[in-house]
Amino acid sequence: MAALTVEKTAGGREYKVKDLSQADFGRMEIEIAEVEMPGLMASREEFGPKQPLKGVKITGSLHMTVQTAVLIETLTALGAQVRWCSCNIFSTQDHAAAAIARDSAAVFAWKGETLEEYWWCTERAIDWGSDGAGPDMIVDDGGDVTLLIHEGVKAEELYEKNGTLPDPSSTTVAEFRIVLSTIRESIMKNPRRFRDIAKNISGVSEETTTGVKRLYAMERSSELLFPAINVNDSVTKCKFDNLYGCRHSLPDGLMRATDVMIAGKVGVVCGYGDVGKGCAAALKNAGARVIVTEIDPICALQAVMEGFQVLTLEDCVEYGDIFVTTTGNKDIIMLKHMIRMKNNAVVCNIGHFDNEIDLVGLESHPAAKKTTIKPQTDRWVFSETGRGVILLAEGRLMNLGCGTGHPSFVMSCSFTNQVIAQLELWTERGTGKYQKKVYVLPKHLDEKVAALHLPKLGVKLTKLTEEQAAYINVPVDGPFKPAHYRY
Amino acid sequence: MAALTVEKTAGGREYKVKDLSQADFGRMEIEIAEVEMPGLMASREEFGPKQPLKGVKITGSLHMTVQTAVLIETLTALGAQVRWCSCNIFSTQDHAAAAIARDSAAVFAWKGETLEEYWWCTERAIDWGSDGAGPDMIVDDGGDVTLLIHEGVKAEELYEKNGTLPDPSSTTVAEFRIVLSTIRESIMKNPRRFRDIAKNISGVSEETTTGVKRLYAMERSSELLFPAINVNDSVTKCKFDNLYGCRHSLPDGLMRATDVMIAGKVGVVCGYGDVGKGCAAALKNAGARVIVTEIDPICALQAVMEGFQVLTLEDCVEYGDIFVTTTGNKDIIMLKHMIRMKNNAVVCNIGHFDNEIDLVGLESHPAAKKTTIKPQTDRWVFSETGRGVILLAEGRLMNLGCGTGHPSFVMSCSFTNQVIAQLELWTERGTGKYQKKVYVLPKHLDEKVAALHLPKLGVKLTKLTEEQAAYINVPVDGPFKPAHYRY
Amino acid sequence: MAALTVEKTAGGREYKVKDLSQADFGRMEIEIAEVEMPGLMASREEFGPKQPLKGVKITGSLHMTVQTAVLIETLTALGAQVRWCSCNIFSTQDHAAAAIARDSAAVFAWKGETLEEYWWCTERAIDWGSDGAGPDMIVDDGGDVTLLIHEGVKAEELYEKNGTLPDPSSTTVAEFRIVLSTIRESIMKNPRRFRDIAKNISGVSEETTTGVKRLYAMERSSELLFPAINVNDSVTKCKFDNLYGCRHSLPDGLMRATDVMIAGKVGVVCGYGDVGKGCAAALKNAGARVIVTEIDPICALQAVMEGFQVLTLEDCVEYGDIFVTTTGNKDIIMLKHMIRMKNNAVVCNIGHFDNEIDLVGLESHPAAKKTTIKPQTDRWVFSETGRGVILLAEGRLMNLGCGTGHPSFVMSCSFTNQVIAQLELWTERGTGKYQKKVYVLPKHLDEKVAALHLPKLGVKLTKLTEEQAAYINVPVDGPFKPAHYRY
Amino acid sequence: MAALTVEKTAGGREYKVKDLSQADFGRMEIEIAEVEMPGLMASREEFGPKQPLKGVKITGSLHMTVQTAVLIETLTALGAQVRWCSCNIFSTQDHAAAAIARDSAAVFAWKGETLEEYWWCTERAIDWGSDGAGPDMIVDDGGDVTLLIHEGVKAEELYEKNGTLPDPSSTTVAEFRIVLSTIRESIMKNPRRFRDIAKNISGVSEETTTGVKRLYAMERSSELLFPAINVNDSVTKCKFDNLYGCRHSLPDGLMRATDVMIAGKVGVVCGYGDVGKGCAAALKNAGARVIVTEIDPICALQAVMEGFQVLTLEDCVEYGDIFVTTTGNKDIIMLKHMIRMKNNAVVCNIGHFDNEIDLVGLESHPAAKKTTIKPQTDRWVFSETGRGVILLAEGRLMNLGCGTGHPSFVMSCSFTNQVIAQLELWTERGTGKYQKKVYVLPKHLDEKVAALHLPKLGVKLTKLTEEQAAYINVPVDGPFKPAHYRY
């Protein structure tokens, strides 16, 4: 990696983006997005005057898009100072990054980072000063900032105990090797840094299923170092962003990357969780025949009730036209599958991590040759068959790599949860309400997030009478459902 | 009410049905249903040989349909003795009742009971002998058997305390007046009967949202007298029966009752829970434009994301063509609404109780005149406007009153949960596993119910590898999701 | 056949129906249907005062349903005298027949006629007096009245030429044998009857694809004896009744006959014309996976663009759950197919004639045994496999045999075309406008039919400005499209 | 306009494109498109060896996209020489133009032409040599080449008659002014040029509704100078490209231009022809509530049967979120409408010409200010309200201006019709089969186009038996439908 240098705005704020001159374009798109993000704008109105996050240092690691820009500026409107990186090497919108860098926060992100650059950006985002100070709170997506700090603390403790430094060569996972290098260098400079950082953190609010799984695992093993709010499992997040966001952004990404006609094709969707449901619906609505693969019999039964055929990948790999992984698991579409596919079958992933598709297998297969059609759209040809597959975004989140991610409106639901979570964590710091555990926002806040988004869509809610509320045993103003309600 | 007399089969089993000669027809439909109810048939295969319910006395109060017949005969195949009544005055399929009465269990049910007859049947179902013996377990739907026993116990205790007998004239609710009369007469015969019954009961498994709400209220107030399993909130019940069942049976009932063309019409669905989601989807799929009314902002936002307009009933009452209540609440469509509706607007309810539609208001309105087109299809004309509305099933469950209810396959999911719940309650009686509380079946049993229904639909599940299972931190064979997962 | 006798009303009008006492019930349903049939009611208003069909004798052969009753009474409201029979042995709604017989027209129809009874009814409908007088005009559906008259004329001419009488034993087609017997007896009584009848007829308006095909064949061979208006190919008929009518009535018939859950099943729709499109959409919307069979590559390509798989019946016969024939062709689902089907696969036809399904093969197969579940729902078991199929309506139109056919609103579109066609034929008789050929109604009348149905559905049409009309070169008030436009 | 100069390849072929260095990228996308265009590739295989278009000079005016590149190279594979321009100033894909210019044909097209440049390109495309020679045949889309030649001939005749030259100042339509200038200059150079060109032309095949309307008008007024094949009204064109193409490309264009979330929004589709049907379906499928505006009562009734509300634009202009014009008419969304719209309502056109939306009104309104967000995405703010609308592609075809147009597969259907039409016109030149009239391809060729596209989608067609074919009176191999069949 060529040495990266932090730049500074005229006002002295640090940043590293692709091209600051795109800031005006970014600002225009941010302004348009604001009209589509009523929850965030309402939060500015409601909370802004009291400045509840006055001076709070927030580090965010979340796709640096136009929508995220509106989130960042909502946090700053509430008084926060913000440093930001993207949580995916392909997902930054450079004009949005430029606008934020120029106007609002310290941004370290560009579309098409290398893995080394990615972790450099992540480290910049948590570095709040030459003395190694860290953030007061974290906004995380996938959990990489949380991971870095937790791994850092573990390594420091081991180092303190027996002088062992992290050994990058101990792992074959390319990305984790970089994490270990980063920590190793940090320890050599300041062997207490991550522990100081962790101690100062009031909490993290985590955006996505993958990161949440990591948090629950840490909670179970009592390794969690600060409170966490699981934003992903707010109903107004997982049943909206994951479902309706993907229903929108999967075809968007497919069209931008390949222009392939979806109608008449066979789409194969691996996984029928919220993301899979959105993807399957999108392909069906576009005129494809959709086959679902599932491990969970309940989700499989849901799929079949919606008219989808449920098969294993082995059954349909030879006649599928478009393959999408949505599982959150690993090793879903392997080299052996891709070799058997039709010529120019499209293969892509919309799950958080890139290990659903066997890119490693492709890259190490001697008979596979890559041609880049355009950025994020590669054709891999197998010399043994002469056929090729079209792989999107190198197996990373195709909707962000090949498109612009989820649209503003649905992100407003998710991000209003983030704002509320940050407010909760900060306001309740030191009150004992949040321990070193994982929490979901209470239902009345979830309902509030929804309510903030209804007027924009012309919705008129019905009001319960006192008698009706008593009859079904809920408050007149909600919450309206028991905790276990599934929506 | 004319005196009702219990009849007996040649073998001496009690019953009261419309026409025993329909038993052959009932049997044929039961046999066809068996092919569509793989979960129940698999339960017979798996558990039948061991006779785990040998001699157990089960009282059921649940729509006496063909599908319920297969449930009853699954319980008897596992060794149980069964007495049954319907939980709705219109929902019995007389041929199914006849077949069961002749072949398998004591049945007290017919289509078109009066309220007095309904409660007579209910009391017959819990009467297991001249000594006032009650059942070992209850299968309940809406909770009327549970209610009767709990109210009975309360009344007996009050009577023992101060000699007060229940006073039917103390209530204006016609149905509750009958309940009080029933209990009053029981106390005068045997002032300990309901307490003896309650003490003997190992538990109840409750089928539906409405009954579950009652149970949780009793749990909260510590009044619950025996353990309860909430079958409704098994995923394989509420997300299938409530949703896909209603998606099927709403148009079925509408067509049988009115033959009205749904395409091109404006459908108004009050409530967007699981039942409302199924109803709205059905009307949309049939070509209607659908308007949803909701109190809950989250459900409202879901509706609008699916393309439905969300308004209040007041907004659309004048141009809606078909109105369906699905709320589980009361006082949804009132007289004042019906007077404003278009001529021949169809008004119906698919929620458990009949108080969603203001039948009382209609009946007491001097200017409203009823003409019965055919059973369960009445036209009410308002002399002040000359317009009329078509009211289905007198405001009771229209899919059971005007049609045959949910189809076998989806009821197999629900009823397999019932069988498993009954097995749990019985097998674990006295082990302390189930207290006087409300329980949901564990996820692995929920997943098992789903799995039993997949082969019939040609589904091929994917198997996790050990590595994948470890990666997402679940057992290879499930359960695959955390408890809070919403599907 | 037991001798059938014509009955007479108090007023002396002839009829033969199942049960005249159902007339009140029929009347109520007719009144409800009137609200749903705005085109017919508007025709009464517009044309009634001038009595354009004053004294005209119209014979109709068209499913004697509630909707047809509104058609008949529209014709009588315009002054016509009407005699009517059904065009299908299972399609009569007996209460509708009773109401019409009592109040409006001579009806000869009941649900469940034998073939002999069917043709007896048909002959009654064309018999306008003891002198053998026939009708002035015909409303036909499938062309049986037209066929009878044309075959009659041919036979009379042959008889006149060489004394040959029709020989019923010359054909193996059971139904045609009865036609020949009927004509034979007629010739023996009056060897000029059919020729006299034909000469008097001003024209026929034909309802359906099948009848239209027959008419065009007769036109091509110059055998057509009077003008014919092809109502089927009015856009407001074929693209509405055939498509949206079947989308409604296929699931209706399936549910009434079998209560089978459609969701999750594999539906196989043979033929993807207008009827097939409606059926495939209905099954898909109900949650089935749908496979289409087609001979026409264009229709096949349409099917696949809508997400349907297109296979041959051989490919999918073993895993389909519900099979529907819509082809208008013969020999679609044969015995050999049914033997291979899953146990309790549902087999039905929604095309005009019953020869799409091999009932003959079933009946003659020694190892096939029929059990009637209920009228129009038979289970045929094959002893060689132990499996059975459920055959609806003996292979005849299942939506009319097992349900009540298409709903009123869409039939109002079709039947308003019929009324306009009858008016055209009568008004223009003798003007030379209509020769012995097949005609389609002009587009402005087609558009008028549509326009009459819009206010009921709340539609507000946009008006062209003069400039816009000139720009696209159409009159301001239409017609708006060229003749070849496909909609 | 700065003077434009024709460039030449090393081989001497003329061209004018944006950037020839994009040819490699264009070539890769062309190769991917070939896999998706089975009809064109099959045409190369079937006809290529005989070189039926050997040496034929073809001028094309049709969006210069990747798909068109495959059409051009199919024509050259059959022996033709080709000169090409785009038929829309925004629709060229520059990399496709580069690849064709380098490898196959003379191309004059780039994305973002001025109107002057557009007509310069058009004139280059018809100029086959210094002696003013014209093409042998035309491929036209919208009819601009045909218009130029017909207007040229008219002007030459007038000039010959009385020396009058075309007067650009005689029209206020900016574009027609340029046409007149072009012709004026041509006459001054060579007053017989357009007549010579016209005389030499064997025919034109026209792609789209708009161009076809012009042709029929010329046929009616006997002004047509050469035979025309109406490709638009092949079923495999208008019911596929117009419908399924737009269903795909409308959301694609919306997403690329605005990233707006479609779900939950109110979409207003002006016109419910094939294009409108595709657009309405796309918005509905994406979760929008859709309102249709229509002038034709039949199309309006179709819309309402599909669940769409039908209103006038005036009714819904204030609450619509996304407005799409599809009418083929003019003056649909006017300034007065746009002023009343919600802030950031999206306004776009997918019809052929840009006069559906009142750009002229916007540009001349003093209080309207334009901000360009990015190319083809402008925000127009009205100072009197502070609200703005987002106008796509300056009112031109938004799917080509903001996206990449229709996907390859559906264009393969359309373009295979073009190839067959060109073959017909050339093979039958001088045989008298085609007069100076407008023709539609015969049904067997239409069916052939469909058939060529089925294998790619895994379709298996059913074959008629001889008996079945006889029964429905069609040849075993088709054509299967009468000419008036609507599909």
UniProtKB/TrEMBL annotation, chains A, B, C, D:
Cofactor: record remark: Binds 1 NAD(+) per subunit.
Domain S-adenosyl-L-homocysteine hydrolase NAD binding: 242-405
Top-rank taxon, per record: Eukaryota
InterPro entries, alphabetized: Adenosylhomocyst_ase-like_sf (IPR042172), Adenosylhomocysteinase-like (IPR000043), Ado_hCys_hydrolase_NAD-bd (IPR015878), NAD(P)-bd_dom_sf (IPR036291), S-Ado-L-homoCys_hydrolase_CS (IPR020082)
Cofactor(s) in the UniProt record: NAD(+)
Any one GO MF annotation of this record: adenosylhomocysteinase activity
Any Pfam family hit: AdoHcyase_NAD
CDD domains: SAHH (cd00401)
One GO biological process term: S-adenosylmethionine cycle
Amino acids binding substrate: 65, 141, 207, 237, 241
Enzyme Commission code: 3.13.2.1
SUPFAM superfamilies reported in the protein's UniProt record: Formate/glycerate dehydrogenase catalytic domain-like, NAD(P)-binding Rossmann-fold domains
Pathway given in the UniProt record: Amino-acid biosynthesis; L-homocysteine biosynthesis; L-homocysteine from S-adenosyl-L-homocysteine: step 1/1
Catalysed reactions, as listed in the record: S-adenosyl-L-homocysteine + H2O = L-homocysteine + adenosine
UniProt-listed PROSITE patterns: ADOHCYASE_1 (PS00738), ADOHCYASE_2 (PS00739)
One CC-aspect GO term: cytosol
Swiss-Prot/TrEMBL keywords: Hydrolase, NAD, One-carbon metabolism
Function as written in the Swiss-Prot or TrEMBL entry: Adenosylhomocysteine is a competitive inhibitor of S-adenosyl-L-methionine-dependent methyl transferase reactions; therefore adenosylhomocysteinase may play a key role in the control of methylations via regulation of the intracellular concentration of adenosylhomocysteine.
Record's protein name: Adenosylhomocysteinase
